[in-house]
């Protein structure tokens, strides 16, 4: 597996990759992961995840200083390093997690070796471009260049997957592709605990990277507009480059005493936050699936989410939560208030419906689908058991100027 982000990084792509690696090792496969070194120390060694021993090849990497933690392998050295790993490991199949540095390199090196190539795309390009410090016109040009190059990587792939049907539609539309498989990242529901009892104090929880595309400012502004008599508190778990700015925003809006920024938390702490919350809120506009939302559903929480990208795939308005227009502070406030003021039995109904819906994302089913791809089944056969029965319509806005980056227009008037 070639991954440009892997633990100790904390993000959806890294979490999926480590779950997939440990899951395949538990199924008896010999798993190797190639990833950037998390520090200046690089080399090959065994690492343990979920009780499984994985061989990890940590390549020499450099820190990308505009980002708070990102490290990368120099693109002009990536193929050299990948060639050495493939020579040593002699894999039957390679699986890249994005068509960026290491994904691109492993495909270029595997193409002439008769190695089966599987690909998964976790990348929303705007997430990456946000940290390049390039002017907007240059970002537009860079996105077009990247999509042209990525198409070559995708075209060499025996089966290309992404977490949801909406994300697959996005990839097909922008990458000029067909037959992209929608395979959920998966979640083990038993890892989480739902508490259907009345909570002493209403808690609104957000979990994720504290970065611009998550639009946490929208959530804080909506929270500030709630009636203080509700006694609600806002809890934000995760780290990122926007934390200081958002803490200031909370102070400026007079809600700092009712807002807590936890930063990075352990898995046990995170599970407790979910269990003790009243509602999960996610205003992000750039989710290709959102493992955090699935974790919230597995914890029995109603969800208030932006109606953007893949979130409507998980949150069905009025069934397990409520959707609001991306960037619309007032709609977000109304949705939060609707959950917080609902009778307890209504909150339980919403939470139980999400608890039921998340069964479709069972991680063992995800593992089975990927193992079938690894062992040579065609994408067409696996598609019959994946999420490809979902609607193929493009119901998000693709900016005509760039022809690539999905741009959800924020409703400034609502702020």
Automatic annotation (TrEMBL):
It comes from the Bacteria. InterPro entries: Glyco_trans_1, Glyco_trans_4-like_N, Glycosyltransferase_grp1. One of its GO terms (molecular function) is glycosyltransferase activity. Keywords: Glycosyltransferase, Transferase. Residues 10-187 form the Glycosyltransferase subfamily 4-like N-terminal domain. This is D-inositol 3-phosphate glycosyltransferase. One of its GO terms (biological process) is carbohydrate derivative biosynthetic process. It comes from Gulosibacter macacae. The lineage of its organism: Bacteria, Bacillati, Actinomycetota, Actinomycetes, Micrococcales. Pfam families: Glyco_transf_4 (PF13439), Glycos_transf_1 (PF00534). Residues 198-355 form the Glycosyl transferase family domain.
